[in-house]
Design brief:
Elements (H helix, E strand, L loop, with lengths): L2 H15 L5 E10 L11 E2 L1 E14 L5 E5 L4 E5 L10 H15 L7 E7 L9 H16 L6 H16 L6 H8 L4 E6 L5 E5 L5 E11 L3 H22 L11 H6 L6 H25 L3 H17 L6 H11 L4 E7 L4 E9 L3 H16 L4 E4 L7 E2 L2 H4 L1
Helix pairs in contact: 2-3, 2-4, 3-4, 3-5, 4-5, 6-8, 8-9, 10-11
The structure holds alpha-D-galactopyranose (GLA).
Alpha-D-galactopyranose binds next to helix 5.
Length: 392
């Protein structure tokens, strides 16, 4: 836990609102070992919650007006908790969207004061937005004793993002943020939401993230386009195979049989998803059997497929993956998250990591005149309350 951040949050809360927070929640970001864009296609993903998160302080108030302060943006919004409407401030919509979903579920939200801040780099593909939605959900659930279970809270976060933010995301990020377990990755079936935990042990190798510091404004519109291209593929195939409801129900041979009925682009998108689902399951087995070389090779293959078939990478990220592939200390590397920038996730020999990071940084700067930021992560528990003891 980031104690400095929690203390700072608590102090600002007290100074601004003249009361102590009743609850402080820590809500983590996530990594994803493999399985990108498979979640909204009812497929498989292999994420984990991490030790970087958002901290949210909250207390009920007698005043009519609710208020939220974002420490990182140095901004605040005032609103009616029982009448959430879209804000011009983008960050506020993740929270207001959650309030709307609580209302739809029949829960009355009384006025409250909130402040939050975090240490998840924004736009790096570590799901700071899901962390915010899930943290707010759990904070309200606890504060008001609503008895909503964690999976329902994840679904509430996802619905908030669809309706208030306009990104038709899958369930992976919210699920990982709420259901993560320390040192475990989870194999999540996004169709049934059944999930299994596996201890993550990578021997002499570590997971290292490299933040390209590229964050494309295209990301959310292209994300929704990918989703509709997959749906277009399903609709065409379902004309003949009426049991097909999502790409989860489509095998590679059925896809190939239907190739001529699909545009070239839609065919490529569907092929990527079907094969990415297979890659998730292969990586999971290889991890369990400590076959790290195989894990690494599949990460490279997955990246190549994201570049050429799903077309969601960018030159900066492709460069980082190519550069790493020439280094025998790096077993695997791929872009992580929604795409068009963000981080690469890399499986690197621990005792060679710092040299490799330096050399990537120099090469990256020479080529793109941009800084590269390494992010060291540990796999952590999902959203939790910061204990009263820590608050003192
Ligand atoms: C974003 C979305 C997730 C998922 C990933 C790509 O993080 O929020 O639902 O689709 O992109 O795997």
């Amino acid at each position: 836990m980031n104690t400095t951040l929690v203390n700072n949050l608590r102090n600002i809360f007290k100074e601004t609102y003249r009361v102590e927070p009743q609850i402080i929640v820590r809500s983590p970001g996530r990594i994803n070992i493999i399985g990108e864009h498979t979640d909204y296609n009812n497929g498989f993903v292999l994420p984990a919650a991490i030790d970087k998160g958002i901290y949210i302080a909250i207390a009920l108030t007698d005043s009519d007006q609710s208020e939220i302060i974002s420490l990182d943006m140095n901004e605040s919004v005032k609103f009616q908790a029982d009448h959430p409407v879209k804000s011009e401030k983008h960050w506020a919509n993740y929270i207001l969207g959650v309030l709307e979903q609580f209302q739809i579920e029949g829960h009355h939200i009384p006025p409250f004061k909130m402040a939050f801040g975090g240490d998840i780099p924004i736009g790096a593909g570590l799901s700071s937005s899901a962390a915010l939605e899930c943290g707010v959900g759990l904070a309200l659930n606890n504060l008001l004793d609503l008895g909503i279970d964690r999976i329902k809270l994840a679904l509430i976060g996802q619905a908030a993002e669809h309706k208030f933010v306009g990104v038709n995301c899958g369930i992976m990020d919210q699920f990982a943020s709420l259901m993560g377990k320390q040192n475990q990755v989870m194999l999540l079936d996004c169709q049934s939401l059944s999930h299994q935990y596996f201890p993550f042990s990578s021997g002499d190798y570590s997971l290292v993230l490299l933040n390209s510091n590229v964050s494309h404004s295209l990301a959310s519109s292209q994300y929704n386009i990918r989703r509709s291209q997959c749906e277009e593929g399903v609709a065409t195939i379902a004309k003949k195979y009426t049991d097909v409801k999502s790409l989860r129900d489509v095998s590679l041979s059925i896809l190939i049989e239907n190739e001529k009925k699909l545009s070239q682009v839609v065919f490529k998108r569907c092929k990527y998803i079907i094969e990415e689902n297979q890659r998730v399951n292969t990586v999971c087995k290889a991890l369990v059997n400590s076959q790290l070389v195989e894990v690494g090779n599949i990460l490279y293959t997955a990246h190549h497929a994201m570049k050429t078939e799903y077309e969601i990478t960018c030159p900066e990220i492709d460069f980082l993956v190519d550069y790493s592939s020439e280094d025998s200390d790096v077993l695997g590397s791929r872009m992580m998250g929604g795409g068009f920038g963000g981080c690469t996730i890399n499986l690197v020999r621990t005792d060679a990591a710092s040299q490799w990071i330096d050399s990537c940084g120099i090469a990256y700067k020479n080529k793109f005149k941009k800084e590269l930021t390494p992010i060291m992560i540990a796999i952590s528990d999902g959203v939790n309350l910061v204990s009263q003891a820590t608050l003192r």
